[in-house]
Specification:
binds S-adenosylmethionine, 288 residues, Rossmann fold, two-stranded parallel ribbon, 8-stranded mixed sheet
Amino acid sequence: MSSTNATMLATHVEDWSGDMGERWLANLDRFESMISPVGDALLARAAFRPGEQVVDIGCGGGASTRAIAASILPGGRVTGVDVSASLIAEAARRAAQDGLTNASVLAADAATAAVPGAPFGRLFSRFGCMFFADPQAAFVNLGRLLHPGGRADFAVWAPARGNPWVSGLMGIVRNHVEVPKPEPGTPGPFSLDDPDHFRALLEGGGFTDLDFHFWQGKQLVGGAGASAASAARFVLDAMSFGQLLADQPAAVRATAEAEIRELFVAHETPSGVIMGANAWLVSARRDG
Ligand SMILES: C[S@@+](CC[C@H](N)C(=O)[O-])C[C@H]1O[C@@H](n2cnc3c(N)ncnc32)[C@H](O)[C@@H]1O
């Protein structure tokens, strides 16, 4: 078996401002519908109120930014921040289309950016904080975006092992290619999966009152209504799993795709491919 140069699902900020951001944009509705159950749970925990001033970190195409904008009327404002200029342009377009004049966007690296309107009362992030090159410095910067006592709500993926939709796919990828374990601290979707590590970063960033909730739910892999075949293609074309196999011969990639399709057939329903997913929903307050 050959190995891959790609560390397990590592994703860096440069990927998001480039290829990965473009792939997310090209498949925006599928990605957003796939992760909407986690987003809904995080929004319910955050319980935004009219008048609040909010920053949405790593807002992508802005589904959560728009949901927040609608929930803080009248008087509230939300700013979505994302490192991908293409995603930010789409987030702005969709907010304008929905007439949400209390939503603005900023194309910037949240690890270092000074965001107009800061300090905010609330910070929100659905899967947007796992890709910082220097996470400790980034969480110090995020802390600075909040005023003392301000509240942050984060969703991050729980460990791949035991996370049904990921472990099934990784098992198949590993049938074909050796995937090196990431160095601790490597940016990527699972970089904050260890609560002790995440807790230390938040405390180092000046956050307190940390609350970790283990969310276990179901999600539609490949988006609402996807067949097993179309979800398998989506996973290989749009997600990092495909990159892990990118250097393999076409026959290997075709076999992996057939195995993924078979995995998904077992979870196929009229609504789409439904698989279990685990995430940490974490709330914290800015010290002071
Ligand atoms: C998994 S996507 C989630 C997007 C969005 N929050 C959602 O739930 O639909 C991660 C997002 O974080 C953004 N991102 C990654 N690193 C970032 C950084 N350092 N600063 C700002 N945005 C970043 C990416 O461009 C991408 O849009």
